[in-house]
Design a protein that fits this description.
Length: about 675
């Protein structure tokens, strides 16, 4: 039998626990998926929250926002200010790393409404005495429902004092002291609270602004052909710091499996001298909590981390949750892996590709809780060695709920940790990982090769709600990817892609020294893999080889560090050009501080054109000339009005980074 309308209205599941609560709290902004996932902010920022809060009728309401750090018990409350149209706003500082939670609280403030009405009534109104008694009843109600309060009791007695005339008591009620008392002790017995979660991950500044440099330690031995060590790599740190990088990212540093080891260029027929892929983790020498013996000891690694810190560099470690066939986990925890009918363990596949040297975990194992706990302990182990930044390999091939759990658990105890998601995958999966806690993410920048493509992509990344939870990290290359755009390309193209990555996104990185040496030869035409990939062999690099672009990278990173406008991603605005091969955009700090205009030639040829830039968009006067200092070329220009001419020869420099200022 169908329920009639009245039964639906009385269904306790459809109304609040107390039907007398009249406040409606609706559309809290910003949020991610109705509060299902946390917002992301940086410590020191102010968090501004808006909400639609209203009630039936015309009575005045009071609204507050309550917030607390997840490790605290006491809620902090601040008043929300009405902005019109039943919209309320509050702002508060985020002074602590970690996870915050918040909620909106609203109630009908009957005493405030009474006082407001009392102020409006003329002193000869015949209902003045009745209104006074109404106020006394409200005060008595507050006194009964709140803890006894001598101050409140005094006001009640005085307003009931018949030795005073009604007019005298009305004047007494209008005393500002009573107004303050009413605000101090509101009756919130019928208040409403927002029920959907409101969460914020507060991270340190490096989550928002960082310059990453990836290299393989094993290729940096002082002796040619020998496996490099952490101690030998310490000599690289001054130069990496000089180039302006503040994060050194190391591929996996663990023992490499011997079973099914890959040879050079991913060969299935390795020689005894082949060193294998660092991503084939584990051997009889240890697993994810061990250091490859040829790199040194755990103490050597800790010393490398400490040495890097002396140069202002943090070490990021690659976390790859996969195993070689001879990883200790395979024999110690066989239920964590899939086994085929022939008794062999299932290796990784992404048809038509096969990864015979890598065994994926089976996240559908009945022993999943123990597996999750062990994987979390890997993070904790390396945190205890001094690592606070993790680049996570292929997180999109592991359950999203695992990432939500493990990052939440780690953030509660280690709020300084930063997680970079290496997820070159479908957009919804990519963004789903970011929602679940990853601080930064690899992106499709690598394959956006025209001004129109890059503009559309950037406008997507800075749109709501992506801007609230997704921080891009732009990489023009990786050990896995030599994009077609860079294949057989001259140094000017490497410069162009570098300046785009470093100025479009506040987080970016390169795989070196392949990038600064402009290594451009693919394994074969049409494939995005390096010939003689460092993934499978020890290289001998000449860091000062002719044609390197180290000085250009150094210059761009210096500009990034000295211009706050480049230390955020979502402050970008594009401007029009009449040449489709020129990309132009503006970045500035708050209050029009540190304004920059960047123009990039995305062609391999000399390009010229007109840029449509209005000075007023960065707080300058349109009617006056203004100076543009090219920070790359150290040359100054004067522009007038909105349309001005540029010419960029990529063999000289593929871009302008203009700092803008008004003459006079």
């Amino acid at each position: 039998m169908k329920k009639n309308l009245s039964s639906y209205l009385l269904d306790r599941a459809l109304i609040s626990s107390d039907g007398r609560r009249r406040i409606v709290i609706d559309h809290i902004f910003p949020r991610v998926d109705c509060g299902g996932f946390p917002l992301k902010r940086i410590i020191g920022e102010r968090m501004t929250v808006r909400a639609h809060v209203f009630a039936d009728g015309h009575e005045k309401i009071s609204v507050r926002f309550a917030f607390k750090h997840i490790n605290e018990e006491k809620w902090n409350e601040i008043p929300m200010v009405e902005c019109g149209n039943d919209e309320w706003e509050a702002s508060f500082p985020l002074n602590k790393l970690g996870i915050y939670e918040g909620k909106v609280i609203g109630w009908i403030d009957h005493l405030q409404n009474w006082l407001e009405k009392l102020y409006k009534l003329p002193e000869d109104d015949k209902d003045l005495g009745v209104e006074l008694l109404i106020g006394v009843q409200l005060l008595e109600k507050n006194f009964l429902e709140l803890s006894p309060n001598e101050e409140l009791e005094w006001w009640i007695e005085e307003l009931k004092n018949e030795r005073l005339s009604i007019l005298q008591r009305v004047h007494l009620a209008k005393n500002p002291a009573l107004q303050q008392l009413v605000q101090k002790y509101p009756n919130r017995s019928l208040s409403s609270e927002s029920t959907e979660p409101f969460l914020i991950f507060v991270e340190r500044p490096k989550a928002q602004f960082s310059s990453w440099y990836e290299f393989f330690p094993r290729s940096w031995s002082i002796v040619a052909g020998r496996h490099g060590t952490f101690k030998e790599c310490e000599r690289l740190l001054p130069e990496i710091a000089s180039m302006g990088f503040d994060v050194v990212y190391l591929p996996p540093i663990h023992p490499i499996g011997k079973k099914a080891r890959k040879g050079k260029n991913n060969s299935l027929e390795p020689t005894p001298e082949d060193v294998g892929s660092p991503w084939a983790i584990g051997s009889e020498e240890g697993g994810h909590k061990a250091v490859h013996p040829a790199l040194g000891t755990l103490e050597d690694f800790r010393h490398f981390v400490e040495k890097a810190a002396q140069y202002g560099i943090e070490v990021a470690l690659d976390i790859a949750f996969q195993c070689s066939p001879d990883h200790p986990y395979v024999t110690e925890h066989p239920s964590w892996f899939k086994w085929r009918p022939d008794g062999t363990v299932q290796y990784a596949e992404n048809p038509p590709k096969k990864y015979q040297d890598i065994i994926p975990f089976d996240f559908e194992t009945n022993d999943w809780e123990a597996l999750w706990g062990e994987l979390k302990s890997i993070f904790v182990f390396w945190i205890n060695q001094g690592v606070k930044i993790f680049r996570v390999d292929n997180p999109h091939t592991k359950p999203l709920e695992f990432w939500r759990w493990v990052i939440w658990e780690l953030k509660k105890e280690y709020p300084e940790t930063i997680f970079l998601s290496e997820a070159f995958t479908r957009p919804k999966l990519l963004y789903g990982l970011a929602k679940r806690g990853f601080s930064q993410s690899y992106t499709y920048f690598t394959w956006r090769n025209t001004p129109a493509e890059l503009r559309a992509y950037m406008e997507e990344l800075i749109s709501y709600p992506l801007v609230e939870f997704f921080r891009p990290n732009f990489w023009p290359n990786t050990p896995d990817i030599l994009p077609c755009y860079l294949q057989y390309a001259p140094p000017s193209v490497f410069k162009m892609r570098h300046v785009l990555a470093a100025t479009l996104s506040s987080n970016y990185g390169i795989y070196g020294p392949a990038y600064e040496l402009c290594i451009n030869t693919p394994l074969e035409p049409g494939k995005e893999e390096y010939l003689d990939s460092e993934k499978y062999e020890i290289k001998k690099w000449d860091w000062e080889a002719p044609g390197n672009i180290k000085d250009f990278i150094r210059k761009v990173n210096h500009i990034r560090k000295n211009n706050v406008a480049l230390q955020r991603t979502n402050n970008i605005r594009f401007v029009q050009t009449d040449n489709p091969r020129l990309l132009a955009y503006v970045k500035e700090a708050p209050a029009h501080a540190d304004p920059l205009l960047i123009v990039v030639n995305m062609s391999r040829n000399v390009e010229m054109g007109w840029v449509n830039f209005s000075p007023s968009m960065v707080g300058l006067e349109d009617s006056k000339p203004y100076e543009l200092m090219d920070l790359l070329a150290d040359v100054s220009y004067t522009w007038h009005g909105e349309w001005n001419f540029v010419k960029l020869d990529p063999e000289i420099c593929p871009a302008h980074i203009f700092r803008l200022s008004q003459y006079g």
